[in-house]
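Obj: model holo form, ligand = manganese (II) ion.
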Amino acid sequence: MTLLIRVSRQIQRKSLQNTSLYRIFSESSALRKGPECTDECKWLCGSSEEILSAVRGQVEVRQNFISEEEENALFKEVEAGLRKKRYEFDHWDDAIHGYRETERLQWGAASENILRRVRTVAFPEGSPLLGPVHVLDLDKKGYIKPHIDSVKFCGSTIAGLSLLSDSIMRLVPENNTTDRVDLLLSRRSLYILRDDARFKFTHEILKDEESFFSGQKVPRHRRISVICRNLPM
Ligand SMILES: O=C(O)CCC(=O)C(=O)O
Ligand SMILES: [Fe+2]
Ligand SMILES: [Mn+2]
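Output (holo structure tokens):
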């Protein structure tokens, strides 16, 4: 594991979400935004209107950002390298459970085209980017605990493509762990976390058993994310 990735894993430790509390949230909460409900309701759900306002404009999920063909091209390119590694489960203090990962600097033409599109929509113009792209493969039983990516090594914006499975990304304010925002990261979507959503909220990927959106079960299968980051200013 590279230094960068190891450092980016410094978790801001939080007691894991209380499960029964979570259930109450997932069954009743799904704050619906009434008549003005827009496209956003398909991927954004929060425990209060305030918390939704706090992240609006700083989180974004673009559904179907890549086609099935593009997903397949990316998958083929990363699968050979990933297959040689074993999923890691037993490091209790890791931010991520049940994963294997790699970084890639050089991509084939099809993937490079996709990554160029990601960079164009996600990052401020002229923002220096982290060269290697991070590829994270979560086993069906894998999950990512709440953490904030290293502020020393990564800048204001994190952009990730989701391959193979839908999943739920949860954001929790660092200073108020009872509030939360859930993002439905559908298969082939692109998510973008910016500024406060990246610096002042922890993010996590829920385990299959806890994976609900608006009270609806969202089965979590093996999931590969392809993540681009920029450099700190
Ligand atoms: O899999 C993802 O989309 C997020 C991964 C993540 O949070 C990380 O590697 O820091
Ligand atoms: Fe990471
Ligand atoms: Mn992260």
